[in-house]
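Input record (one chain):
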Amino acid sequence: MSSEPSRVTPPRALRRPQDWRDWVGLALRLLTGVAMIWAGATKIGNLPLNVEQVKLYQLGLGDTLSTLIGYAQPPLELVVGALLVVGLFTRVASVLNGLAMIVFTFGIAWAWAHGLRLDCGCFGQGGILSSDQKPQYLWDIIRDIGLLAASVWLVIRPRTALSVDGWLFRPLSVDDDDHVPAHAEKTPHQGS
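The corresponding structure, as predicted from the sequence alone:
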């Protein structure tokens, strides 16, 4: 028996210091989450108008699929955005957000390539632009690619500061991000 008093060590997840990547992840999580909430909130009040906006892209989806997308998109944006803001199921929410950004980028590029003059409807009701208005397709695509890049970061490294995931799903073992030096690993005692 050892004569040293036993010390209680807090679980590793509680004593691991936050590093800069956790804070970058928090910023990206909040950026993408707020963007999705904003996008969904501006459309949720008039779902039939969102259906019409989807149809304006002339993607050949048919009436039924366009209607389904038009009604489902705003609530899904709100749910994904809320999950990202609170940091719950961050990786899953980021995958969904990234897929949405790919679809949105494709839709905007399609409209641009086919000479359609649309307000993308990303953060509002959108619609056909008047003859004196210019489409902002390049800026819309750059924005969506930036949000896609943020989503990729969060898929690769979903652990962020101040997240519900961090409180609910604490790591049970050392992972790659903890960077424990090889000489610090425990080795079994050989004969005492």
